[in-house]
Known about the structure:
This protein has helices at residues 10-20, 27-35, 70-78, 90-104, 138-143, 156-161, 203-217, 231-240, and strands at 38-45, 48-56, 64-66, 86-89, 108-117, 130-132, 165-170, 173-183, 187-194, 221-227, 243-253. The protein is of the alpha+beta class. It starts with 9 loop residues before the first helix and ends with a strand. The protein has eight helices and eleven strands.
Amino acid sequence: MKTVMDKLTPQECITLADVITDTPMTVISAARLKQGMCDAYVTGTLPDVAASLVFDAYCPDEPCGFGTDADALWQLLKATDGWSCINVDTACAEPLGALIEADTGISVRYYGDVCHALLAPVHRYTNETVRLLTIEDVERLAQAPTEVQGNGYKTHAAMVTEGIAAGAVIDDNIVAIAHTYAETDLHADIGVSTVERWREKGFATAAASLVAEGIQAKGKVPAWSCGEDNIASLSVAKKLGFTEVGRRTYVIPISPE
């Protein structure tokens, strides 16, 4: 049996990606597992596992847990370091939270993660400042504020060539971006961000519509996830025609003051 302290090998990560399947709710973890851009741990013997943890290289303090055995997930978490919360199946959230509180004496809170899929042609929005980004924009991306550089790929060049990215470019500067954050055989998750002073101008909506259109042209389903109270992100998803397909839940220990 694989012990909780053994990090999965690259080949085992690929097997785990098949175990968690390819859905709008698993696309990010499945992509990272197949890319080798995560650390992953399981209890049990692949493919028959009781629980698994996937630490995304781009968000390493917020692992995703798979499986509904709360005790098995908690044993995995206790054997790993550096996490601040965990994203799990909603049915498992409260049992896991109760175990964390009982074992550590630290209270937890819960935060909903709303998962969407675009199951019909994207509602197209245009903006004169928004266009697809190409290899010619790599230097602009490198010089842009961190929040609009995009991520999910090892380099900016990979993001605009292997993935799909669109941005709002004003005075030769990128001020908003939408891009494929993670891609599997069936789905591609879209990430968006806008520099604060340029928000509420429709840039994110127009950029995301271009990216979604590109994903659909590849025969894949665009996916979108955001926090349950992220009104701006939820609004963009609705405008583009995304449909909520499920929810996961963050279990977040509350640090003592």
